Amino acid sequence: MSAAGTNWITDLRRDFDRVFSSSKGRTHVIRAPGRVNLIGEHTDYNDGFVFPMAIEPEIRFVCRSREDGQVRLTSTEMGQKESVASSQNSGAGSRNASTDYRLLDSQFSRPLASFSLNEKIVPLDKHDKDAWTNYPRGAIAELIAAGIPLSGMDVLLTSSIPLGGGLSSSAALLVGTARCALALAGLTMDPQRLALLCQKAEHEYAGAPVGIMDQTIIAAARAGTAMLLDCRDLSKRFVPLDAQELRVVVANSLVKHDLGAGGDNEYAKRRRQCEEAVRFFATPPIGNPAVKSLRDVTLQQIDQAKGKLDDVVLRRARHVVTETARTARFAELLAEKKYEQAGDLMLQSHASMRDDYEITVEEVDFLSAEAMKVKGVYGARMTGGGFGGCIVALVQPRAATALIEHLTRGYADRFGKRPECFVTTAADGASIVA
Ligand code: GLA
Questions:
Q1: Is residue 215 within 8 Å of residue 203, measured between CB atoms?
Q2: Both 257 and 179 in a single domain?
Q3: What is the pLDDT of residue 82?
Q4: Cα dihedral sign for 169, 62, 195, 113?
Q5: How far is the CA of 384 from the centre of ligand 1 (A)?
Q6: 85 with 106, same domain?
Q7: pLDDT score recorded for residue 5
Q8: 184 CB under 6 A from ligand 1?
Q9: 323 CB near ligand 1 (under 6 Å)
Q10: 319 contacts 357 by C-beta, under 8 angstroms
Q11: Which of 237, 254, 284 is the last residue before a domain boundary?
Q12: Residue 44 belongs to what domain range?
């Protein structure tokens, strides 16, 4: 490991000892990355394909076991956001993969949140100041429900994944917490099983009806590759991203999305519209009972449904059906190094999300269109759940800096704020670092 790689571990351990001074016990350092999806949006809960990779921004955890069944958590990023923001000179635009959040003693006069394994673990109300702990609560509760014996623990975590940016800080928090608890118990778990367990935790403790993409890539990513995940049978193909030939650039619009609690949000609404489409395509005489999900529907069937199925529902289904096909093709093209054609599919994907699925906002439309004005950019599209968040661009290495400069200038002129941009390589899935 490089010197830079070990420094943060020493620093974070020292910070941990300052916060949890009296604790003794087994200690581990864990990391869980964020993710960016190169293509395949809102296809996971429709049994389709997705093509994400893990990114360098990550959540880092120091955890130490406790014998009294208490789980105590504190964070430099969540819960006391304001004091953290004012204590670090990292204005918008300056945050990147190598940024570490510095800790102040005053933040740690007490642990931020705690719960006990000796009682039933319940989610907090979403307005509770400690509502972010619903992710750790959910992860721990689901491990216990799976019959895994756990001890209590103290956890200090720090994150460089932008919150609400569509880069899966929530799934990283879930998977990372579960890895902490398992490591302290001296156990490992198959990454896909862990991902499914964390997805259940997100449904039940955060009220977010998410698919399986984020947890899977965060638990099971392999450095240097993107993962073609078939969400029907959870089979995976890892496709190398040639670092000599490609860069992945992420630009955060800073428009926050919220896929969280409640059935009334747009994400849950899209899921219901997809279910409605499935019912239509599965019901005779027009439909076929063999149709179990939009994965089973063809573009021809979509065309035939025009005028018979509600237009909004039809467009939602068309996005999913075309996006699933694009995603499988994109993985092939990338493996064959046909970057220009792959880039075209990213543009089609963006247009489909904008026009058929209606999940983009003006700011991300602007960023993805502007990206294409820079020479050497193969493709750009919104990534993640939508309604803000980030775009991802696939670019020639020499174009990365020009792209970031162009987006930063153009976005500031148009919207009066700097997007947070960074270049990232494909990182490894969550791991025990020490
Ligand atoms: C969020 C969800 C994923 C997926 C994407 C959209 O990130 O967590 O399961 O549905 O939105 O592709």
A1: no
A2: no
A3: 31
A4: negative
A5: 6
A6: yes
A7: 62
A8: no
A9: no
A10: yes
A11: 237
A12: 3-237
